[in-house]
Amino acid sequence: MTSEEQSAGWRLLFDGKTLAGWEDPTAKSPSGDAWVVEDGCIKAVEKPRIREDLVTTDRFGNFELAFDWKISSGGNSGVKYRIQDRVCLIEGKLNPDAKRFEDTVDYELLHRTSSRSGIPLGAGYEEYVIAFEYQLIDNDKHPDAHRNADRSAGSIYSLVAPVKPAVRPAGEFNESRIILRGNHVQHWLNGAKIVDTSLDSPEIAKQLAERWTTQSPVYELLTKQPKKQTSIALQHHVDEVWFRNIRIRPL
């Protein structure tokens, strides 16, 4: 980091060597296997037993976050901010009546039937983070990116589409920024401003209702946002993804 960046208030969230400043999955019980440091990058390990996002130990309110990332072919990931809650999903302990993933998340938020300490031997485990998400995805090969533009690279996932595509091919590094002041957020990708909106806009509330329903606890959390000072998370979505040059400054 340059002296000019330091003078402007920037600081590193990743030292290039360790997971210092992050909730290290290997230090948890049972030990996680989803993230490693490799070749100066934080890397999501493909198909871990314990699938969980990598979460900062510090919390942030208004900020500018900058990071470089590359995705594997056909891969999917994200960066989550304004985190409101986290819920455990354990294979074999999920609501049998749930017809959609969203129903499962809602049920676990309401009933909390699962916990990390209760993972049965050999069972799959996922921790789902309720937040807004800067989508990272292979636009060419992942089917979700073809489903709707609001699921393409740089979108606020399932809520706001980028105004134009700006992502590089899978396997190449991209430069991204998230600028958050109050509820006003911008997403930047490779020098282009691709999202500029308010998190409490009627349009976002409408999209949340369509995905989760207005009775959903997720809908309530993301429309009311009771937590404004929160951690930031790198999403684990099964696929390999690499992060480097992660830095932040308060606004």
Please characterize this protein's 3D structure:
The protein has about 250 residues and is α+β, with helices and mostly antiparallel strands. It has one domain (about 5-25, about 35-85, about 130-250): Sandwich (Jelly Rolls), CATH 2.60.120.560. Helix content is about 15%, strand content about 35%. It contains five helices and 13 strands. Strand 2 (about 35-40) and strand 3 (about 40-45) form a beta hairpin.
Features:
251 residues, alpha+beta, Jelly Rolls, 5 helices, 16% helix, globular
Fraction of residues in β-strands: 25-35%
* Poorly predicted sequence stretches spanning 5 or more consecutive residues: none
Mean pLDDT: 95
In this structure, how is the largest beta sheet organized?
8 strands, antiparallel
Shape: globular
Element pattern in H and E:
HEEEEEEEHEHEEEHHEE
Can you tell me the CATH architecture? Sandwich
How many strand segments?
13
Rg of Cα set: 17 Å
- CATH homologous group name: Exo-inulinase, domain 1
CA distance, first residue to last residue: 18 Å
Helical residues, percent: 10-25%
Helix tally equals: 5
Helix/strand-derived class? alpha+beta
Look at the structure and give the CATH class: Mainly Beta
How many structural domains can be distinguished in the coordinates? 1
Q: Kindly report the CATH topology.
A: Jelly Rolls
